[in-house]
Amino acid sequence: MTEILAIEGTDLTRPFGGFIALKGVDIAVPRGEIRGLIGPNGAGKSTLIDVLSGRASHWSGTVRMFGADIGAMTAQRRRRAGLARSFQRTNIFPDLTVIDQLEIAARAAETPNVDEIMAELNLTALALRRAADISYGDQRRLDLALALIGRPKILLLDEPAAGLSIRESLDLAHGLKDLVARWGVTVLLVEHDMEVVFSICDRITVLHLGAILAEGTPDEIRRIPEVVTAYLGTSV
Amino acid sequence: MTDIAGRQPAVTRSAPPRHALAFGGAIAAIGAGAIVAATVPSNLMMTLLTQAVISAILATGVGFLIRQNGVVSFGHAAFYGIACYAIALAMRHGAVQAELAIVLALVLPPALAFLLGLVIVRIPGVAFSMLTLAVGQACYEFAMKARQVTGGEDGFSVSLPPSLFGIPTALFQDPRSMFLVSWSALVLIMLALAVTAASPFGRLTVAIRENEERARFIGYRTTLPRALVLTLSAFVTAIAGVLFTLYNAFVSPDVLHWSQSGSALIMAIIGGPRLIWGPALGAIIFFFAKDLAGDATEHWQGIIGVILIVVMFMLPVGIGGALTRLWQRRRTP
Which one of A73, A186, B23, B291 is CB 3.0 to 4.6 Å from A77, fit for a cystine? Predict the structure, then answer.
């Protein structure tokens, strides 16, 4: 049976002046899969997320979502079509209360699941607080919550565990895995915490200097000497 | 089942805006304006108050743009002046009835602002301010140069009919009755803006002001809401222009000059642009400071400048913002 691809990028290239951040990258993530995207700093992970989500300009290649070409779509149209993302740096609305910003996000969504998301991410007690006044960890969860509003079909997560404690990171990771199972959402996860990546991802893509170095299951990736040498070391 | 961070019960939503209280407050404020108009003995004082209130409406328009879009306009004099000239030119050339001219004066500036907004609201910060300054000064230069149409720098008197909308025109030129009209307009404008700011549209524009990129990535187009805020702001400014023209029955290019926008901006900053009523408070303070300083020295602008510097350094949220914080602190046990 043919596998349904949730998100697919073909021959993606993104130059920055003389530097080429992505060099003809091909990536295909089947529906319902959690795909890890790892690699050293500057490998092109965030650039790839930017191209897939509609944030990048001056790129070439093809981006398809469930088979439909979305390359010409703006970021907001991709979001309304079910493609959501979070950001490497916390990207929230600092002057609004937690609930106000989630409700604004919900108004643009077909499934306004504000209460569900606040409960999932332990934000209920913070609902009436200004986002600028809550802790960094809570802001990271709020950033993720903004992406989860409306039960998106595809989630592109750019280091969601950055700045969180080990315990918080693992809670987040396993919660995410549970959510994926319940919602059937497809996830492309950029993350430097290898414990998180190797514990929840179905498959892993390794980027190095703007090109794909390897792709496989976590066990397969662990056994590739080039990946271990270039990025993993001996810790996983 | 594993939750991402443990379940909690659904939150109690924040209380809806207390519209009934706001309406009650507006009626009380209009009543207070009527008492002022009936009891202040000096006609000179009433003239000053009327001018201050018309300027307060202009400043409220400028402040609303800062509050919702987070940008500073140096070109609101264009919207103000176009409203003034729309009435004045229609009356001068007998093109349309005075009532229709007033309607046009209220429609043209926001229409221009909307079209302009679709282009310029995408431009951030100082560049936006400079563009609005350029548009404003282009209108000013046109009024100065097109003598055949506008009378050039001398300006001209506006011949209004004996009555407007069935109301004797003389009432619009009497400081007491005009104070009441302008004050009522100001109160209703602030009420309408407060309701707008508390609405989903108002909160969305604050979200866009805070983080436009994130607003796009939760599914919103950001240009149209920002252009609509500029339109609303220009509409408020046009109301001030109409009231100014009815009261003074005279226009000159001064109404289009950048210093008109600059004064409104100073008023908004002194009062506190993040509050709906802050710019109006700033306008009242500005006018009385100008009057008092003008009695003391011909260099009254210097005194206003010192007030502005002190407010910006000591009270970055404006006098209104500082009063609000003080009030909240006193109410907190």
Answer: A73
CA dihedral B97, B85, B243, B41 (to 10 degrees): -110
**How does pLDDT run across B205-228, given as a tens digit for each residue?**
999 999 999 999 999 999 999 999
Q: What's the rounded mean pLDDT across residues B86-101?
A: 91
Q: Does A233 have pLDDT greater than 80?
A: no
Scanning A115-144 for CB atoms below 8 A from B yields 115, 118-122, 124-125, 127-128, 141, 144
Surface of A (84-103) touching B: CB under 8 A: 84-85, 87, 91-97, 99-101, 103
Domain boundaries B43-331, CATH class: mainly alpha
DSSP B267-307: HHHHH-TTSSSHHHHHHHHHHHHHHHHHHH-S-HHHHHHHH
Largest CA distance in chain B: 79
List, in order of start, the domains of chain A with CATH numbers.
1-82+154-170+186-236 (3.40.50.300)
Long-range contacts of residues B220-226, Cβ cutoff 8 Å, at least 24 apart? B220/A76, B220/A108, B221/A74, B221/A76, B223/B118, B223/B121, B223/B122, B224/B118, B225/B201, B226/B69, B226/B117, B226/B121
For the stretch B245-290, pLDDT in tens is 999 999 999 999 999 999 999 999 999 999 999 999 999 999 888 8
Helix axes B125-145, B98-120, angle to 10 degrees: 140
Domain layout of chain B by residue ranges: 43-331
Q: Indicate if ipTM > 0.90.
A: no
Q: In angstroms, rounded to a whole number, what is the distance separating the alpha carbons of residues B242 and B234?
A: 12
Length of chain A: 236
A63 CB contacts (<8 Å, ≥6 apart)? Answer: A7, A8, A9, A10, A12, A51, A52, A69, A70, A71
Cα gap A139→A146, rounded to integer Å: 10
